[in-house]
Amino acid sequence: MSNLIENNTSIKVVDMPSGVEGPGFFATTLDKAVGLARKNSLWPLPFATSCCGIEFMATMATTYDFARFGSERPSFSPRQADMLMVMGTIAKKMGPVLRQVYEQMAEPKWVISVGACASSGGIFDTYSVLQGIDEIIPVDVYVPGCPPRPEQIIDGVLRLQDLVANESIRRRNSPEYDKLLAKYNIE
Ligand code: SF4
Questions:
Q1: What is the pTM of this model?
Q2: pLDDT confidence of residue 127
Q3: Is residue 38 part of a domain?
Q4: Do residues 164 and 42 make contact, with C-beta atoms less than 8 angstroms apart?
C-alpha cells in the first residue's frame, strides 16, 4: 500500500506553512500552524433547500471528490461543523431556522453562500424570499451561478481555505468580530 502511494505522483502532501528552516529544525508561528490544520479539515454542514443542493451532491461524489480538500465528512449536527454551506432559495419563513443553525455552530465557523438564490434571492424577487442570506447571518464567500457547477463550488471552498489559513487565532476575540456579530444581533 505504501509503495502504491509512493509511486503515485498524483498524491500530494500540503505545503508547509512559511517559516524559518535550518538543518534539523523548522520554526513557524502558531497562527500559521493552526491555520494549516483548520484549512484542511473544514467539515461542511450542507443547508440545501433546492436545486443548488443537487450540485453539492455531485461535488461530494466520485468525479469531483470533495474529500480531496479534507471536507469529506458532512456534518448534520451544527455543533460538529465548521463550514455552513447554504444552497438554494431561502424563504423568509426559513430564515429563523438558518439563523438558529448558524448560532448553534461552535467558533470558529465560516459561511459559504452557494448560488444566486442564497446570495441575493436569485430570480425570486418576491415578498416571500429572503434577498440574500447576509441579511441574517455573516457570509465569508459567495459562489455565483444558477446553479454553480461543482468546479465553482470547489473554487469557493478553496477561497475560503485561503481565508481560514490566514486568519489570526485572535480574530474571534477581537472587537471587530464582536462588532460584526452585533450588526446581526448575535451575541
Ligand atoms: S440559484 Fe438557481 S439553481 Fe440555485 S437554488 Fe436558485 S434557482 Fe436553483
A1: 0.88
A2: 96
A3: no
A4: yes
